[in-house]
């Protein structure tokens, strides 16, 4: 008779950790199809809350606002973060390199309350001195999100740049490539998976931010986390459960596509020629 081997301590802790992380999401998804408005009572299967969600103009407007801000912030953060990472990793003898590195990584450890308050004071002083911004809205949230998302992108891209073989770039320049062409033809394809990872990370951070957006937003600019937070304070609505389910589904699909694309790119890069 074959005895079943009991799972080890590490596997048991892993299973408990995964259960702790994903069980609340499963419960949320299940209750998004609940007929009852009460989240603690199951009254039957229904999809009416998804219809109510798509009829809610406030939530739809906040979703569109948050998606635009996240897209613009992630794109700008990739540009600025890649530039900072390139300077930090390649110009090692530059004066002030340590100071620059510390300033880039500061938003990673800075409390969001401090970051939001400092940006709010900055925008207020700018409005008094130069007359811009007249009203705090989408532009101020975009600038604020780009500020702290750039730090995360810089860390991700710099880790990838340190692994790049410099002899390949040197060989390209020896054959007549300019430094700019070498970057776009040689370096950029190699660090492309890090750029995608950094963009997705920045997009997620911007889409999820509540504290900083609350400081720098105005009456006409309300992001999705602000709407969800204000509605949850009055009681959890089934529409929020439906919205969260759609977000989980969208994020899962995007993450799978990004993983599959980066996996193919990595295999293509390591394939012998």
Automatic annotation (TrEMBL):
Annotated TM spans: 12-33, 69-88, 108-127, 139-161, 182-202, 240-261
Top-level division of the source organism's lineage: Bacteria
PANTHER family: PUTRESCINE TRANSPORT SYSTEM PERMEASE PROTEIN POTI
A Pfam family reported for this protein in Swiss-Prot or TrEMBL: BPD_transp_1
Cellular localization per UniProt: Cell membrane
High-level lineage: Bacteria, Pseudomonadati, Pseudomonadota, Gammaproteobacteria, Pseudomonadales
Protein name in UniProt: Putrescine ABC transporter permease PotI
SUPFAM superfamilies: MetI-like
Keywords, comma-separated and alphabetical: Cell membrane, Membrane, Transmembrane, Transmembrane helix, Transport
CDD domains linked: TM_PBP2
The family this protein is said to belong to: Belongs to the binding-protein-dependent transport system permease family. CysTW subfamily.
GO biological process annotation, one example: transmembrane transport
Record's GO cellular component terms: plasma membrane
Domain called ABC transmembrane type-1: residue spans: 63-258
Principal location: membrane
Keyword Amino-acid biosynthesis attributed: no
Record organism: Marinobacter vinifirmus
């Amino acid at each position: 008779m074959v005895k079943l081997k009991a799972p080890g301590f590490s596997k048991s802790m892993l299973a408990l950790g995964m259960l702790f992380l994903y069980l609340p999401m499963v419960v949320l998804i299940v209750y998004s199809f609940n007929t009852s408005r009460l989240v603690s009572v199951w009254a039957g299967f229904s999809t009416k809350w998804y219809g109510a969600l798509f009829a809610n103009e406030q939530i739809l407007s906040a979703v569109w606002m948050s998606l635009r801000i996240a897209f613009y912030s992630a794109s700008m953060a990739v540009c600025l973060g890649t530039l900072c990472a390139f300077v930090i990793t390649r110009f090692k003898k530059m004066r002030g390199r340590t100071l620059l590195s510390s300033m880039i990584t500061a938003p990673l450890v800075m409390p969001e309350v401090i970051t939001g308050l400092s940006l709010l004071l900055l925008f207020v002083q700018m409005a008094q001195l130069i007359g811009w911004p007249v009203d705090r809205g989408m532009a101020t949230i975009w600038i604020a999100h780009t500020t702290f998302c750039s730090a995360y992108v810089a860390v991700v891209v710099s880790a990838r740049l340190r692994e790049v073989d410099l002899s390949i770039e040197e060989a390209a320049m020896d054959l007549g490539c300019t430094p700019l062409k070498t970057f776009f033809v040689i370096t950029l394809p190699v660090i492309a998976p890090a750029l995608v990872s950094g963009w997705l990370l920045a997009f997620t951070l911007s889409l999820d931010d509540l504290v900083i957006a609350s400081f720098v937003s105005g009456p006409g600019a309300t992001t999705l986390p602000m709407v969800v937070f204000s509605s949850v304070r009055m009681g959890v609505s089934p529409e929020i459960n439906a919205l969260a389910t759609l977000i989980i589904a969208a994020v899962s699909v995007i993450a799978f596509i990004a993983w599959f694309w980066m996996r193919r790119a990595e295999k293509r890069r390591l394939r012998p020629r």
